[in-house]
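[Meeting: bench + compute handoff]

Bench side (C.D.) handed over the final construct sequence. Compute side (W.E.) agreed to return the predicted structure before the next meeting so the bench team could plan truncations. Sequence as handed over:
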Amino acid sequence: MKTILVVDAQGGGLGKQIISSIRQKITTTDIRILAVGTNSVATSNMLKGGADIGATGENSVKVCAKQADIIVGPIGIVINDAMYGEVSSMIANVIGESNAIKILIPFNQCSNIIVGVKNQTMSSLIDEAIEKIKEYL
């Protein structure tokens, strides 16, 4: 069984959409989706998207990143103080150091500009992320 860790902050809207898309577009039952939010609202919304397990906070990221085969989330999850300060240096380091495949969704927000990335809708970025997840399952 493969474990997919979805990490999100703030309201967890992106994470919820990622999880919903995984559930709709990846038909294998041999996956487990862990949702870790930097706050309880993010976690709650990702659980509503269909995650198997939800947890909140830095230590949860640390523990779940060790179990994950694939980590998915916005690019800010590997940038210290991103997402209006919700991504601590510990979260960024733990995810960055994880042996899991990291599928990061680029957003040009919060003073982090990623060159070479076209402006795309969140939906099309999530679709691309789902295709990458399928490649690694």
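W.E. noted at the follow-up: The two ends are 9 Å apart (CA to CA). C.D. will use this when planning the next construct.
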